[in-house]
């Protein structure tokens, strides 16, 4: 008989009744029934109930063990009586009567229990992550992650993509986020950077003559944590293709994403391919965001002209100063108490805005200060444009265009949740397309790239030379699902003259571009194919499929909100000897 197990804790069935088997695992739970002791034994695969009589020689030894101790038990499989069958457990029709037991490893007093669904503070969960991961839900999330990645790989291989690995130690480059730097021992005063993404390398793979590349790629960015972003590192499905248009990229990736979601969505609906395509400007107008949650049926509309020169003086005056008015319908809200509208106004102020105007319609009669001052005709025009019913409400965001869009988008999301309007058990996908290539940086008072500096401008070099930079669109696109950005991508620029011109508009002279991107520019000058790709976030895909609100719940060993690994003690100091080897010295800037 094997030293540790003949079966796993998920294997035993009625077919094994009468057999002597050996199981190893963790003591999940013990229940003392006087002269009988029941032990739920757990391993990676599942759980088996074991039982021992008080008169057995090993009873005292087993009874003394704490939860989470690791034991090996040997005994006979018996069938449970009908009244003790656990229908919710695959092994629930049988139990193992323990004859022998060997303690493999004793557990100390637990800082947090594994059994049960209690919630615990983040610092305890992350400091004892190895215990946290033993919990049923967390264990299932990580197993799901493995299955999702395996499915992605299989689908990519079947679609003709080849998997390559790109460097982890590379050069720093201005790609939008802050680099993690690694000092070089052999080259004093110089640093490697951990890749924010394999962007340049995957383009160079195309220039090297490979046609369809992918990689489950680790990416490193020194940025703050969010619910959908882990500080430090994350993984993405990195994809690049040669001789493709934007449509070709969409056609290649949609079956992969749809297939993965359909495989693991259970009873939840998944948007079939092809996904809806929404231009960036339209997304900002209708949803107030370039990451719209299409489960929410609310669509924002521009009603600036209805308020221009109207009797509602506050808005009319702001419009003359360049403001716009966005209307956010609230279906069915007219029948609610006024407190609902007042709380929305207070919420807008808490978000840093002046507030939200509103009209509430009860039994066909519009109420509130705006309806009173706007007048019957304009209110009727407003109701007609927004298709407002006799017991609907509507909120208004009035501000400069960017601020009005942002407030309207936030309000749309809150109203959708508060009124329970979101479609249930659905994954709704869309593409956001036609991003602007450039944006104006108010802080730096300059034009800069808005999305990806390596994107091909729509119209090519002619557009860069003849159009207002802020009017130039790029072949850039995002995949969005339920309000979460899963992927960004683009058809790449592959011509050196376009790259130099685009970076020039963003304030980088030719010498700087040559210095920052020597590998890319050199490759462009030796025959570069038209190419494009994208990079869906693996962590976010699993987060959505696991129905988790925080990305931390689907990552094995995440850092906390301060980018600290509490379990391993990182970041940590290093010895003076190590610093000398790297030609580094720590300077106290506060001294």
Verbal overview:
This protein is of the alpha+beta class. An 8-stranded mixed beta sheet has the order 6-9-10-24-23-22-19-12, sandwiched between helices. The longest helix has 23 residues, at 136-158. The N and C termini lie far apart (67 Å).
What is the count of β-strands? 24
Which structural class fits the helix and strand makeup? Answer: alpha+beta
Question: Major β-sheet, in short?
Answer: 8 strands, mixed
Our estimate of the beta-strand percent is: 15-25%
Number of helices: 19
Query: Which regions have little confidence, pLDDT < 50, spanning 5+ residues?
Result: none
What percent of residues adopt helix (DSSP H or I)?
25-40%
Gyration radius over CA: 30 Å
Instruction: Round the mean pLDDT to the nearest integer and report it.
Output: 94
Distance from N terminus to C terminus (CA atoms, Å) equals: 67 Å
**Shape assignment:** globular
Describe the strand arrangement of the main beta sheet, using strand numbers: 6-9-10-24-23-22-19-12
